[in-house]
Predict the 3D structure of the following.
Amino acid sequence: MVFTSIKPELCYRCKTFKHLCGLPYCPIKERLKVIVKTYTRVVSSRELASSSPPSGVVGEHGYPKVRVYVGVGAERSIDVKFLEDPPRWWERSLTLEDVIKLRSEMINIINEGRYHVKDVDKLYSREISLIQVSDRPVDCEVRVDKVLDRNIMFDLKLLPLSMRVIGSIRVSTNPHIDHRIEKIIHDHDLKARDAIIELYRNGVDIYSIQRALSFGLLGTRRFRKIVPTRWAITAVDRTVTRYLREEVKKFSEVPEFELYQIEYMNNRFTVIVLPGDIKIRWIEFWYPRAGMEHRDNRPVLSLEIVEDLKGEVDTMDGGFEAARMGILESLYKRRRKGKIIMIREILPNYYVGVGNWHIREDMRRIFELRPIIKTSSPEELIRELSRVFNNSNILNVVIDRVRRELSQKSILELLW
């Protein structure tokens, strides 16, 4: 994975208004406006009455003894649930800045100590884990003992984690648990994998399943554990992917070559669908921008992942796992299968990661868009790709991979 960052000396010279980094706005200035407001609210009243959307994160540092964060709004909000609602963010086309602003309006409460990953009952008895699977916001009373930092932490896999405080949280309204989740927690004694699939098949929101696994509510009762959130996200994506893959394999192939494209959150995704057995290839390019450390102005091929015949990969990447889960869900809805090539272009203005949710949501809806082209001619597909990708560095790679897939015959074809 390639990461780029703004040179600190540029920020010093810029003073927030010269835009030397190439962005049309100053991300530091915009973020500070909200964080200062939130900080003022917290320090002026050490006791807050607020709500959790729900929101929470289990850290991985120090595993098996981990930090547990519960996210609440810094102020009571008419729509506190919107503070952590990726599907609605996607539907409303929230920008990178919108998401950062929303996350800056939250505070994350942690206890002074850590939880051992086997301390599932401690989280449950304090209703911290139940907050995470409530289908409505949960009112809480928060006491702030110490502000750890006023920064907002970014991670390519997780949603931004805003101001962290040490304190205590008391639930003042009962979490309202979906009966489908409640059955899994109390009545069934399923392995985590089986529980994830059952919840997904029954229509439970993927983000609720992730939090349920992370906060120790899934798995056979004797072996339930608290799972760091980053690991839980990937585990749920991979488990659902394996289930969907087996289902999609039963369907008929797409009859034509298809080409789709979507741009959101300063990321551009191109999806090529080819007739054939299910197989997914992921290609990722990063663009440089003004003020970045780079050798030239060409986009860099930073990552390529290809499934083997069993759908396994030798590289773990959260963005790919989110995309793979989303595209297989889209194929399942269409009752079709095919070879998939996904190209992700990380554009110059994607200056900070806000989690993989937007990749998952893009791919879950990609086939709802009008295709750029549907054709039975490989030559016509390649001509259209030449029009879509005006950068030769990307175009040459994409055409090469398309030709490779077209030249590879399936096992059944070889047997006949």
